[in-house]
Amino acid sequence: MITKRIIAIGVVILASVAIYFYWNTQNRGSLPEGIVQGNGRIEAVQVDISTKYAGRVADVLVHEGDFVEPGQIVANVEISQLQAQLHRAKAEIASAESQVAAAEAEVKMSKAQLSLAEQELNRAASLLERGHTTQESYDIRRTARDVAISTLASAVAKQTSLERGVDAATATAEEISTQIRDGVLISPVMGRVLYRLAEPGEVLGTGGKVLTVIDQDDIYMEIFLPAAQAHLVNVGSEARIKLDILDVAIPATVSFVSPESQFTPKQVETSTERDKLVFRVKVRVMPELVRQNIERVKTGLRGVAYVHLDGAPEPDWSSFLQELDLDASVMNETPDAG
After folding, report:
1. Where are the coiled-coil regions (predicted)?
2. What's the pLDDT at 235?
3. Residue 264 lies in a domain
4. Taking each helix axis from N to C terminus, what angle separates 135-182 and 80-130, rounded to the nearest 10 degrees?
5. Reported pTM
6. In this structure, are 192 and 107 located in the same domain?
7. Looking at residues 85-107, what average pLDDT do you find?
8. 9-28: per-residue pLDDT in tens?
9. Which of 146, 169, 198, 270 would staple 210 via disulfide (CB 3.0–4.6 Å)?
């Protein structure tokens, strides 16, 4: 009897504990009206810094983990051969310009000859009218004028052709100069070097990757919401992100809502198994907050994003979340997580 009584008491205790934990879980998971949630992880766009033209890597100025600013020089490609080509192109420009100068002189001379031939033709015409010269002499002067016209046209065409040659040589020099400038690789974003993919001395083809940088100016979390919730979410909707490693929520906004549904990814938890189709939503961390804590920003951290639905009452985030103060460096007080 005592054994049965002990077993009965144990069953009651276990049932009470189970009910308590169920009630506690349900209450902790409850959200205010107009707030939905989805699980995900912190992500960022990865930017590949690559060579535009084939060449040998001269040096790589950063290492994995280094922070880079927009416009910072991160690597150089060997350009000695291009510099030699540029010198040759500049010499060709100088040569073409001297030929144009000679052609301009020929044009001036042809114009002078044409002017003289026209004057002589006019005098011959006047003399022919008064009978002081022969028709033959007049015809000679007219032929000389026609030859002068042709000579001038030829000189002008030659000058134009040589000027186009200068343009072509200048374009070649500009193209080589552009290749030289493209040999200096710069970071287009503010971020951290994730991979160093090439070393000095390596020969890379066109588009060869040298570095991969995480764009830390665009930190976000992707979540998936069912249609009943997604159609009430707009770009710019207010949101919060709660990371597993933080006790505070990070202010964020919705930056993208997919116009097309997709099957629920295996790693995504949904509130019901009937939610077979979901919509992808990107929740972006406020850029000013990222910049305040740029040394502590890490991608891959898991957590939950909470989104305010369109038309719902303004949420009181503090009623269920401890918010992060933008003026406080809370993330700097958090243990580093890689």
Report:
1. 79-122
2. 93
3. yes
4. 170
5. 0.64
6. no
7. 93
8. 444 344 433 333 333 333 34
9. 198
